[in-house]
Amino acid sequence: MSAAAPDSRPATGAAKPKLTGGTRRSSTKSARSRAREFALQGLYQFIVGGGEAGAIDAFTRELSGFHKADSAHYDALLHGCIELQADLDALIVPLLDRKLAEISPIERACMWMGSYEFLRCPDVPWRVVLNEYIVLAKDFGGTDGHKYVNAVLNGIAPSVRPHEVAADRAAGRAGQGSGKAKGGPAA
Hints:
By secondary structure, the chain is mostly helical.
């Protein structure tokens, strides 16, 4: 009798969700993750087309799958980022190695939303915020845009969530950010 390969399924016998390209399958995404995707689409429209928030919101709510999203979190992200864009840019710009106008709209929206969640969603751990926006930038942004988003958000986190970041770093659960983003894709 030959030895069987170790079973990679959990003890319950259920198959693990398959990951492709560092992203989750649609069926395994949480309602909040879906809300982030829809908010990203709305903010992309806002940045590129300069549309009115209400019209963008109405359009986005009609998209397929929106009913599976956390609409309250979507509202907070879309409207909060648009309302606080100057404040969010003030957090982001010092960490950039180029002008804000040269940043891809996807990466800019990811940085806005990550910064917004750091500031206004204390119930979401900073490492979860960081991971969610790295994944979104991988899924929708340029080839290395996720690295740029990671560098910027890692630079912002210690200033807006100092105790949480310090505790994680002291426990060895989080790396040190370089402080300045370099080499991400341009718009």
